[in-house]
Amino acid sequence: MTLTRNPPRAAAPDRRRRGVRPASRSRSRALPYVLLLPAALGILGTLVYPVFQLVALSFQRENLADLIRRTTTWVGLDNYTRTLTDPQFWTVLPRTIAFALTCAGLTLLIGTLCALLLRAASPWARLALSSGLVVAWATPVFIGAVIWRWLFDSEFGVVNHLLTVTGLCECRGHGWFLTGGQATFVLVVIIVWGAVPFVALSVYGGLLTVPPELHEAARVDGAGATRIFFSITFPLLRPVYTILLVLSLIWDMKVFPQIWFTTKGGPYESTVMLGVYIYNKGINASQFGAASSIAVLMTLLLVGLSWLYVRALRQEAS
């Protein structure tokens, strides 16, 4: 007797499952947007809306009297015209750019030296140096500014004492904040001290990615440490340096608390940078519309630097 196997029946289509699929697909497609909604609302409330209010305020004549009366007077481009024709603005702007370039250059230089020291140090020395850098990086800006103000104090400052004891100069009672040049020097020290840890640790991380075989081959060819760095290490780390340079310029262009807690823009407004200039216009002079126009111009300048930062990131990713 021959047994024949019946072919398996095709499964009947499940109409209920077919009817559910479009809804489940739409839910799965909407799920990422639902998960991103809280972050989008947070960005909208903390970034987009304040920037929108800042831009709107820059087109208004907003002072203390207007705030008390709760009135709004639109003045068009008058605030921008006054800002761009203000001689003090054209004094503060190049000073801020020069200050930022100086701080950024010294930060990259000292940070690179610290990174090279981290790579060459023993494990225990590397741990101690890394810990010191992290502590300096974690110190609040206000605390750091106050500490440096004490260090450079004319009567009880440690800096004057050390310079006098070591015989470098007779600095007893020397005032570091009496002239614009010396006050700016102190500010540069404060800014660089706070920014070096981030740069040093970032460059050190980049140094670890450089293949040691390249350095060994260069040493065999008779290249020195300086030639190896500028011919091998620096070209490989150029994207890292570009990003660090742009970030440092952005941070140093908008620096405010270190200056305000140390010199308040003195002496004789010689250390007034854009951040302090905006504060004086908005808070001290109650010209909130004019201060907003300066802040918008400063934001546009920083957006240009941020574009360079994003471009460097894209080049590094590619």
Write a brief caption for the model.
It holds the Pfam family BPD_transp_1. The chain crosses the membrane at residues 30-52, 97-118, 127-151, 185-207, 228-251, 288-310. This protein is mainly α and 318 residues long.
Q: Mind explaining what this structure looks like?
A:
It holds the Pfam family BPD_transp_1. Keywords: Cell membrane, Membrane, Transmembrane, Transmembrane helix, Transport. This is N,N'-diacetylchitobiose transport system permease protein. Residues 1-11 have a biased composition (Low complexity). The chain has a domain at 99-271: MetI-like fold, CATH 1.10.3720. Helices cover 75% and strands 0% of the residues. It has helices spanning 15-57, 64-69, 78-84, 87-120, 123-138, 141-151, 158-165, 180-207, 212-220, 225-236, 238-253, 257-262, 274-284, 288-317. The N and C termini lie far apart (72 Å). 24% of the residues are buried.
Fraction of residues in helices?
over 70%
Give a count of the beta strands, DSSP E runs of length 2 or more: 0
Distance between the termini: 72 Å
| Approximate strand percentage | under 5%
What is the makeup of the main sheet? none
Number of helical segments? 14
Q: What's the CATH topology label of one domain? A: MetI-like fold
- The ordered H/E elements are HHHHHHHHHHHHHH
Quickly give the structural class.
mainly alpha
The named CATH superfamily of one domain: MetI-like
Family: Belongs to the binding-protein-dependent transport system permease family.
Keywords: Cell membrane, Membrane, Transmembrane, Transmembrane helix, Transport
Organism: Thermocatellispora tengchongensis
Membrane topology: Multi-pass membrane protein
